[in-house]
User: Fold these one by one.
Assistant:
Number 1:
Amino acid sequence: QRASLAHATSNRSVRKPPNSAKNNCTKATNHRFIGVVSINNKMSSNDETIIALQKRVEFLESSATFAATQQSVQDAQAEMLEKLRSIREAIAKDGSSSSANTASSKEMEALMKENEELKKKNAKQAYRIEHLVSSIEELLSSTSKQ
């Protein structure tokens, strides 16, 4: 019995009395502190959730804007492609007419050569005519003196 009594008293001396005012105060403070920490943890996890949701919304908005911008860029590129095709067709048409222009430029060169030859021929004939006229005048003047 003594051993069990000594063991029981030793357990009592180690234990703090449960009705102690100091012990109640620290328990209440600890409980309040734990409550504040858990509220702060809940708030911080809520804040993290809100921040994560805001980031997702921003990403979705930016991707929607990107999709809209991408569509407008594709529309502008399609317009530009149509314009370039029409320009290419116009150049192809002018290219075939430029070969006609090349042919007409060859014709122009031939005509210019012919024109130069005609000018030379005309100048020779004009000289001959002047010479003939002067010869006729001499003959007339010599016959009129006679």
Number 2:
Amino acid sequence: MKKFVKFSYDDENYKLEIYCYILKVGEIEELIKGLEEKNFKLTFIDSDNIRGELELAEYSKIVEIRKQLEEEGFAWSEEKAGFSLKEGRS
């Protein structure tokens, strides 16, 4: 399972937090590589779980990365994110 956990803003940066669990054999290495390429800070890794966060000042870049992750199977309920991720925000 690949989940978005939280999306927040602290007056300077946007933060996107993810959690992946019950990962298949070999999937964890692929996810680590992909998340690191997107500049995620991985805060927890074990045999079938990953937790990480991405902090950026640019809203449009966070939205772009979120869309890429959705294409890779990440999902969440936007109303639980704190506020909706819409393309129109600057």
Number 3:
Amino acid sequence: MKMKKCMLAMLLVPFLLLIGCTKQPTQVDNFYGTSFELAKQSQIHDLNAGKDVAPVEGLEGSVGTRVMKRYEGSFEATSPKTETYSISVDGIETK
């Protein structure tokens, strides 16, 4: 009788451990990654954009002119002078 119980326990314990380790699909598993894919697809404007690998050639005339003038003007402009403040803490003055 004791041998039967021991054999039953030896067969039953691994079986129960294996059953406990099986993964049951959940609602989250069924839709995992769906929100990411939806967000990614909603941000894609032109689906065929990656197929055209030719470089972009220039800008529209009036836009290009304004951009180049602003770019060239950025080297001439000087930054405005900032004011400095002095703070005195325990007789030590810092700037």
Number 4:
Amino acid sequence: MCILYNNDLNTKLTVLSPDKTSIDYKGANTNKNGEYVFNVNLPQKGSYNYILTFSHNVGVTQTKRGSFNLN
């Protein structure tokens, strides 16, 4: 879980599927305490990796990486 405390960040979620295809999603701001929503479609079961990138207009870009399994 990643909590972002700003409501004006540029956010992008990159998902790497089991067949090594890269899919990018742009985050939508919910205006609720820095919560962002990504509408993600995962077409196949398996092990996924992800990279969450977020930045402020005048700040440094931050990244969070991880993985998960879809059964």
